[in-house]
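Handout, section B. The chain below has 117 residues.
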Amino acid sequence: MKKTIFIISLALTLAFVLSPAVVQSQPGRGGYGYGMGPGMMGPGYVPQYRTGGKPIDLKEAKAMMSDYLKSSRNPNLKLGKIKDSDRAFEAEIRTRSNVLVDRILIDKETGYIRSAY
């Protein structure tokens, strides 16, 4: 009987403690969202959804990507070409040996950064 009460109280305690983490990890609920966290290329690193002001220019997009690559602490990554698309800039992340790792889209209006893939 004591063992059953202990197991039930442990399960309730875990459910109570973990429920805020589950709610925060859902996109749109104030958390980082699926697969995102500090230091990753998504919500949590750069200021997302800028309010007011003028759209991001090429110089600012380059600075944002350079800051991101510095924060990744990966000495094998470098910034490749940045291309001006219709509504976003498309930046290449390459290895030091010039192999393409990812293409990143930077929304000109909001500053939102995401992978092009």
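Note. Residues 45 and 51 are 17 Å apart (CA to CA). Compare this with the example in section A.
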